[in-house]
Amino acid sequence: MQGNPVYKFFSALLCYPEAELVEALPEFQAALDQMPELAAHREGLQALLDYLGGNSLRHIQEEYVSTFDRNRLHALYIFEHVFGEDRDRGSAMVDLLEEYRKYGFELGDDELPDFLPALLEFFAHIPPADAQKLLGDAVHVINHIGKNLRTAGSPYAVVLENIVALSPVEPQPLTEPPVRDMDEAMETFGPDVSGIEPLLKPSIQTVQFYPKSK
């Protein structure tokens, strides 16, 4: 199935940074130099690559966790910004999983379908027109996360902004999602590592797709 590799570029940049990412920075640089879809945001993307290559792996990992895992305004789980912890999120997950399966893909056991890097990886494997249609459904949330990252001064903001620029749909502002009562959430999920906030989602660091066997 032929898709647009630019989505894979963004997916990899938004995953938890491992040593393999740093080692592959020359390949990211080559893609930045060659992909026309990246030209409009070249300066910001170059700054991100320079940041990833100019700091220790431990530092960029700690900053990633602080940015995306410890701040819900920047969470890379699309439905978290739409439904919060409302139970309707589960139905939306099922519907999105059906989209994956429609094209013959299954997520790994520890992966959620609304994790943005997973969704972008999926887009890279399906026809570009279909990817754009699905992107148009998610662009409002992606734009919301990107604005929050820009406000926070994160070098990752440019990635979300570039993804938004790929969509023909004009993003609209989001309303605040419902928030589950803290006591109920603590009882259901237990405390996080700090012992203060509930664990609302599993930690996902890598994205793998498994085509269904015929």
UniProtKB/TrEMBL annotation:
Q: Does the keyword Protease apply?
A: no
Q: Does the keyword rRNA-binding apply?
A: no
Keyword list (alphabetical) reads: Nitrate assimilation
Record GO biological process = chaperone-mediated protein complex assembly; nitrate assimilation
Output the Gene Ontology terms for molecular function: metallochaperone activity; unfolded protein binding
Name the domain of life: Bacteria
Instruction: Extract the SUPFAM superfamilies matched here.
Output: TorD-like
Taken from the record, one Pfam family name reads: Nitrate_red_del
Checking InterPro entries in the record gives: DMSO/NO3_reduct_chaperone, NO3_reductase_chaperone_NarJ, TorD-like_sf
For this protein, the record's Gene3D superfamilies field holds:
TorD-like
PANTHER family cross-referenced by the UniProt entry? NITRATE REDUCTASE MOLYBDENUM COFACTOR ASSEMBLY CHAPERONE, NITRATE REDUCTASE MOLYBDENUM COFACTOR ASSEMBLY CHAPERONE NARJ
Q: What is this protein called?
A: Nitrate reductase molybdenum cofactor assembly chaperone
